[in-house]
Amino acid sequence: MKATLLALCLALALPFAASAAEGEPPAPRPVEDDDPFAEEEKPVPPLADPIRPVNRAFYHVNDKLYFWLFRPVAQGWRAVVPKIARVGVSNFFGNLGTPRRFANCLLQGDLRGSGTELARLGVNSTVGLAGLADPARGWLKLRPRREDFGQTLGRYGIGMGLYLHWPMLGPSSPRDTVGSVADAALDPATYLPGAGILQRINHTSLHLGDYEDLKKRALDPYAAIRDAYNQRRRHAIATSD
């Protein structure tokens, strides 16, 4: 159902993406250390937002869903489940996502990253009790690579095109929407009934207050989320994890 929803929504957005992608400025290049005339930091190019009214409407839908549904449920989950157990649930789903990260490391030519993911899977699935703990990171200092198919497409020169804000799913772009469908197909959690809902509630319980703080600080939370997404995704593609 998730893949079908993304595919239908993407079909509606692609006509806008084609026109916006042509004018998208290139991602900033890293500054060379030996260039005395190079600027220390270049501004991040803005992400086109030609369907802003639709995106804003979907943002407000997600805002209401958070305050009326996800936050109350996450608060109840936090009240009955100790933090150590909720962190274990997060680790478990992170371990399940290894095939997705491993595949994207390979597609990006990151052999070291793919080896790291395999090592993490072996250690956490055994010593880490099926991934509930993360001794690979705590003891061996092996951090997850956090690569996704949207980043893979970006490394091959495919731009974001324009900004999309999907109901339930949040900030995205045509490129990252396609990437999320591919990632979902590689993630075993996709095929476990109820796993997506549990993962969402558990993640929210560990980050209660983050969204509320953003809304208090930002003059326009919608624009703040859009710009933060744009900066984060460009940085993820320009640098290695």
Could you list some keywords that capture this structure?
two-stranded antiparallel ribbon, 241 residues, single chain, mainly alpha, disordered N terminus
Secondary structure topology:
Elements: H1 2-22, H2 52-80, H3 83-96, H4 98-107, H5 111-126, H6 135-138, H7 149-155, E1 164-166, E2 170-172, H8 174-186, H9 195-206, H10 210-217, H11 221-238
Antiparallel strand pairs: 1-2
Written account of the structure:
The protein has 241 residues and is an all-alpha fold. It has one domain. Helix content is 63%, strand content 2%. It is built from eleven helices and two strands; from the N terminus they run αααααααββαααα. A two-stranded antiparallel sheet has the order 1-2. A hairpin with a 3-residue loop joins strand 1 (164-166) and strand 2. Helix 1 packs antiparallel against helix 8, helix 2 crosses helix 9 and helix 4 packs antiparallel against helix 5. The longest helix is centred in the first third of the chain and has 29 residues, at 52-80. The chain is globular. The two termini are 31 Å apart. The model is unreliable at 1-39 (pLDDT under 50).
